[in-house]
Design brief:
Layout lengths: L2 E6 L3 H10 L5 E4 L16 E2 L10 H19 L4 E2 L3 E5 L2 H16 L5 E5 H7 L7 E5 L3 E3 L1 H14 L3 E3 L2 E9 L2 E8 L4 E11 L5 H8 L3 H4 L3 E11 L10 E4 L11 E4 L5 E4 L3 E2 L14 H8 L11 E12 L9 E4 L8 E5 L5 H17 L1
Parallel strand pairs: 1-2, 1-12, 2-9, 5-14, 12-20
Antiparallel strand pairs: 3-8, 4-8, 5-7, 6-7, 10-11, 11-12, 13-16, 13-17, 13-18, 15-16, 19-20
């Protein structure tokens, strides 16, 4: 056995797992890119979520509510830039007010603090350029510098003695007695293998592929992923002060995302997004078509004034690993696969939003699973 733990994937969640696990175990993190955080972890809204949307007792709810607190603490203690901006979720018609009422009840069930109902005049006082007939103020929502967060986790893991193998892709996994043999190939074609008793699958977009390499039936287990692309448009700098906090619409019905929202940035910028486009093929295309500009403008113009379509410019795109099939709710999958015949193989599948907010809590949970 070369290591006690091998982690596959170097996004923010993989780095959090590395930081916690390397406190107790000899640990290796394998990442296919030249450094950490090249995919979903660096292509998102960088929002610190509150946990208001997720069903009570779901992993997303529990980990997000605690993660909101622990992430802010981590940022303060490790000099990671962040801002607790607060967020307003706005209703533009009577049907959407019903949704806000249900959302407020869900906030109470999940134990959230700092959530207040707003009438039209209160929304206007907070955000004069927002047109709404009602809203919810969520005070604990904020933004974080995701790259600096990942740098801090990488630094802590490294100081704990964690090893990193960047530019290496996992090509096969074989159980061997009480260990797993991980076959790895470098960008130069060099092949080698390493073994460990515990494997953490934190491969993000390719986490279902890692399961398949071990022989798991991802369709039968409900682990198969659909890639969902989200585009962003940047607002002209002269219009970046149209809002002073995050502003979200009521989510579209049955759309499995939160709607195109307004996100302020730590550098004072303002961007719109993301939308949600399911990809027919798993191709990492991060382009932002200019012809989406009108669609984005039309979407946010239902609740934002003072913006012209000419004020929008293509920015970035990200891809989220969404579960292709689920019974009731697309919750995180975080489990030791001993019941499926693979003890010590810890799966993290479908880790999309609010994965950034939950990263530290997921790391703690994986650490507890590894300890047994």
């Amino acid at each position: 056995m070369d290591y006690e733990v091998i982690i596959i994937g170097g996004g923010v969640v993989g780095l959090s797992c590395a930081m916690f696990l390397s406190q107790k175990f000899s640990t290796l993190l394998v990442e296919q890119h030249p450094s950490f955080g090249w995919e979903t972890s660096s292509r998102n809204s960088e929002v610190v979520h509150s946990g208001i949307y997720y069903p009570k007792d779901s992993l997303k709810a529990k980990l997000c509510v605690e993660g909101n607190k622990s992430l802010y603490r981590w940022c303060e203690e490790n000099n990671v830039p962040f801002k607790k901006t607060g967020k307003v979720i706005v209703a533009t018609n009577e049907q959407e007010i019903e949704y806000l009422e249900k959302l407020l009840e869900n906030a109470k069930r999940n134990g959230l603090d700092g959530v207040e109902s707003l009438d039209a005049s209160q929304v206007r006082r907070l955000e004069p350029n927002i047109k709404a007939i009602a809203g919810l103020l969520v005070k604990t929502t904020g933004i974080v510098d995701s790259h600096r967060l990942m740098e801090s986790l990488y630094a802590k893991a490294t100081s704990n003695g964690c090893s990193f193998a960047f530019n290496h892709r996992v090509v096969a996994i074989e159980p061997k007695g009480e260990t797993y043999v991980i076959f790895v190939q470098s960008k130069d074609g060099e092949k080698f293998n390493v073994s460990s008793k515990i494997v953490v699958n934190s491969a993000g977009l390719e986490s279902d592929i890692i399961c398949s390499l071990l022989g798991m039936d991802v369709d039968k287990l409900g682990y198969k992923l659909r890639w969902a692309k989200g585009h962003y448009f940047r607002v002209r700098h002269s219009k970046s002060s149209l809002v002073s906090r995050l502003v979200y619409p009521v989510p579209p019905k049955n759309a499995n995302f939160l709607g195109i929202h307004l996100t302020i940035e730590l550098n004072g910028g303002l961007k719109l997004g993301p939308d949600l486009v399911y990809l027919d093929e798993k191709v990492k295309d991060y382009s932002v078509p200019e012809d989406l500009r009108q669609e984005f403008y039309d979407s946010v113009s239902t609740y934002l004034t003072g913006l012209e379509v000419e004020d929008l410019f293509p920015d970035q795109a990200g891809i989220r690993p969404k579960l292709a099939d689920f019974k009731n709710y697309p919750d995180f999958i975080i489990k030791d696969e001993k019941e499926n015949g693979f003890p010590g193989f810890i799966n993290l599948v479908g880790i999309e939003s609010p994965g950034l907010t939950c990263a530290l809590e997921i790391g703690k949970m994986v650490y507890d699973l590894a300890k047994g």
